[in-house]
Amino acid sequence: MRMSKLFSKTLREAPNGADTKGYEYLLRAGYIDQLASGIFSLLPLGFRSIRKISTIVREEMDALGAQEILMPVVNPGDIWKETGRFYSIDREMTRFKDRRDSDMCLAMTHEECCTDLGRNVIDSYKRLPLLVYQLQTKWRDDPRPRAGLIRVREFTMKDSYSFDRDQAGLEKVYKAHYDAYFRIYKRCGLPVVAVGSDSGMMGGKVSHEYMYLSPIGEDTIITCPSCGYTANRQVARFKKTYNKEELKEKELVSTPNAKTIEDLCKVLSIESERTAKAVFMVGTYINDKDGSEEERLIVGIVRGDMDVEENKLQNAARANSMRPAHEEEIIAGGMVPGFGSPIGCKEGTVVVVDDAVAESNNLVAGANKEGYHYLNTNYGRDYSGTVADISSAKDGYICPDCGQPLRSSKGVEVGNIFQLGTRYSEAMNCYYQDENGERKPVIMGSYGIGIGRLLACLCEEYNDEKGLKLPLAVAPYQVHLISLIKDAEVGERVYNELKNAGIEVLYDDRKETAGVKFADADLIGVPVRITIGARSFAEGKYEVKLRKEDSVNLCSLDSIVPDTQALLAKLIRE
RNA sequence: CGGGUAGUAGCGCAGGGGCUAGCGCGUCUGGUUCGGGACCAGAAGGUCGGUGGUUCAAUUCCACUCUGCCCGACCA
Question: What confidence score (pLDDT) does residue A198 get?
Fold first, then answer.
């Protein structure tokens, strides 16, 4: 490709809002262009990188025996009503009516559509297992897109869906994806870790997320450096210690103005782990069948030295969504903000008690009376509720598996795999007949990789103060050719030689000064730069420089094609 | 959806109730340069996000609205 014809231009300054290096360079180098919030065009350079990533993904999916299909972006609302998600998903899903006034929606994922395909195709156990995948546009009306391609509203996702007759089959294809995903990221050059995760709106039980660890990440990952335990903080377990002792008599004490655990500990001269703190939320419970909604007050109780992990609480409370409660709502539930506890709360309140609280005795808790707390409250005797792990894992907490301290870090989710089970097949009547003629629901799994997000993460990982330096496997071109000599013929000749040898060349044929060409080459970051200058050309030589290295090598022009091929082959092997 | 911030040339920004609305970069023309974002000379390019109001006069003041970005809520 000739730079003079390239449908993009480089920018000398970072456009407003480019707050991470990777995003800034994607814009400045002309890989992408923003159309609206969370909506981007891929320009030729960006699209070439995306295609390279897509090819790697396709190769690895094909190797699993997956068959590529393409499902529609526009879905009828009906199939989403069958699974209930037409109602349970909030405004993140865009819905509209077609001309006949039927409910339609833009697919934010394709479980429904794919399960519909499955029920049309699968009748007998003889057809199973099956595995399909697609690279298709998703639309998710995220309330807050950010960081360039990291979090967008419209994006391309590789999503695959497995159909199996039993759990063993699902586990096999799940494991195959687990391994294939690592191969995909490795081939792209992105370091990732797989972590246990929450299944969220997808349903199902077992799931993993692939995380690119980076300070720009929005997820918090808990890891154990000693034994390798890793989990999203939303579900991360940790070892708790309990204060077991003889039950003592509950006692009302005056604690004026002690609205926080910190104040309370000061007033009573106790440690925070001797207290129980209440967090008030309002959960929305949606009836999957008709979409009707009900709000209920949720009280989460954790020990004073810990924080509530809202995701765990929402799961334990079985709410579809959750928000902090307003003061009036807490009072209406029979409790007093600042001095609250489930003791004496109104019926209908969902109480979830962290196991560290349930297993400890004689904790200080709110008396639901302004200015008062109770000493020696005990779960089971003084209040009841569901017991679950709802506290948030933190740096330094104890690993549940090996007992060593845990660490936390930030990560970007670049892929996920879910064992869906029969959540969708049962809801949508996707059944098969086994050898005995018995009808059984197909066991499903779904597996996603955000293609654009993957590119964005690669750009965060591979850049320096001059621009991008993507690995050869995903860079838009292999060689960036710069000719600095007057005689245009030489550059043209070399360009054609390399191109005809099947090498992907970006040729800077513009009438620009050397400085401009070098600066743009650094910005775009093609892995191999070949320069033909007057001095070296006079000796029949050219210069080769790798984007990731500083050194420059002089080589003979006579063997430029085989030498370049050898260099590229060497880079591919690395 | 709450809080903040911004919208003026392709990009980054300045300005300001009335005058020809500027600057840097980029673009175009001519010339000189020609290995790390060259120099000189000339030029093009704007209904100052939109609507309504105040005013003799609005890009500037006011109201509303749309859009982008940041923090939070939210999120695969």
Answer: 61
